[in-house]
Amino acid sequence: MISVGHSPDADDLFMYYAIVFGWVDSALNQKFENIALDIQTLNEKVLMGELDVSAISFALYPLIKDQYALLRTGVSFGNGYGPKLVKKKGVKLKKNFKVALSGKHTSNALIFRIFYPEARIIYKNFLEIEQAVLSGEVDAGVLIHESILCYDDALEVEVELWDIWQELVKENLPLPLGGMALRRSIPLNRAIDIEKTLIKAVDVALKGKKTLSQMLMQKGIIRVDSQKLDIYLNLYANEDSVVLNSQQKKGLEKMFKLGYDAKIYDRAIENCDDYLIPMEYESLRFN
């Protein structure tokens, strides 16, 4: 049984549930056990080596690259949009403002820490951030997942993390948010089969988007209505989620360089391809 971690937000559920609903099978008849946890908890479990395959924040990857390969599928990038830094309306933030982020190893936390080095950070479950701002526990908070679409009218956006990303990289590259990683100890033929199965799951989900979305809504595990679900999936579970493309790789490499230059990572990752599963093994093996 292959343990697969994913977050309970709509794009992860959408991209994985074609397997749960039996729309996609493994060619090697491998079985999958899905584990739904918030993204920071998944990051921590992967750091401890507790999951075979998992959704991760891309910012985590340089810390686990020796134990996990990066998968090409199930990826989420911002492209003109992304997490939002929100505050109460009319509040002016000081340089050392107190902020709630969704986890130390999340991609939004990496970008935030580089851009706001004097901010006082606390980490909370992403579902608790909006209330922390409203209650005055913090001055501001970074909203992620579906929360970017529907937050309290008493709040306003201080800045979009997309705009911060653009300022940092000086290029029009997609903003890396989340991807998937696979334990390197899994035999290569099985690892290739897992990746191909997950690629099929994302592809099939997109082709059956309307039906799958309805099934997820009926299960009561989606936190937004059907209209917002459609908007959200168009942002984060789309054709660019099936297989990592060249622009996305450039965005990842730029993010990893920013983290290395900021001394958040002790080693640089200069070429993403070096950390992907070598799919060419399959054709060589059977030649």
Explain what you see:
The chain has 287 residues and is α/β, with parallel strands linked by helices. The chain has two domains: 2-77 and 176-285, Periplasmic binding protein-like II (D-Maltodextrin-Binding Protein, domain 2, 3-Layer(aba) Sandwich), CATH 3.40.190; 84-169, Periplasmic binding protein-like II (D-Maltodextrin-Binding Protein, domain 2), CATH 3.40.190.10. The chain contains eleven helices and eleven strands. It has helices at residues 10-20, 39-47, 61-64, 107-115, 129-135, 161-169, 188-207, 209-219, 226-236, 246-261, 280-285; strands at 2-6, 32-36, 53-57, 68-70, 76-78, 84-88, 98-101, 120-123, 140-143, 155-160, 175-183. Helix 4 crosses helix 6 (161-169). The longest helix is centred in the C-terminal third of the chain and has 20 residues, at 188-207. It is globular and about 55 Å long.
| CATH level 1 name of the largest domain | Alpha Beta
Beta-strand portion reads: 15-25%
Number of E strands: 11
Helix content: 25-40%
How far apart lie the N and C ends? 29 Å
* Biggest sheet statistics: 6 strands, mixed
Please state the overall shape, judged from the principal axes of the Cα atoms.
globular
Shape-level CATH architecture of the largest domain: 3-Layer(aba) Sandwich
SSE topology string? EHEHEHEEEEHEHEEHEHHHHH
Unreliably modeled segments: none
Tally of structural domains: 2
Structural class: alpha/beta
Radius of gyration: 19 Å
CATH T-level fold name of the largest domain = D-Maltodextrin-Binding Protein, domain 2
- Provide a count of the helices: 11
Rounded mean pLDDT score: 92
CATH H level of the largest domain: which superfamily? Answer: Periplasmic binding protein-like II
